[in-house]
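Aim 2 progress update. The chain analyzed this quarter is reproduced below.
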Amino acid sequence: MSDYPRFTINRALVLILPNQPFADWAAAADPGPVPLRLTLEELREEADAFLLPESVMEDEGAAVKWIEKRWQTFFEHFLNGQYVDEVLWPQDRSLKMFRQWFTIQFHSMVYDMADTPIVHEDWEDEGEEGTALQ
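Predicted structure tokens:
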């Protein structure tokens, strides 16, 4: 395979980046005796990337709408990534709060630079092998 970006996949990509209110909550909710104070930059360092369906590839507005329709799932994903104990999570979550706590960064072009098949790994079926995509 060439080092030149040649192959795209039929997905859009979004990064969901935490904003300062998420960092403030994470610091305040820390149950440890010595609170772990991660900066916003540290929380954004390894941003979670999500591949979205082909139907939203060409339109950032459609991609944001797709994410916001599922805001609760994404919000819980990030809260769980910080603390698995749901008692520590904010109880009055809303789409408005999601918009304040996270920035959605859209990318319409996703290039596949590898020469091996893409493999899906199902986290709900831990221990099973991933499935190669054709």
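Strands lie at 12-18, 48-52, 102-107, 119-120, 131-132. Residues 12-132 form one domain. These observations will guide the mutagenesis experiments scheduled for the next reporting period.
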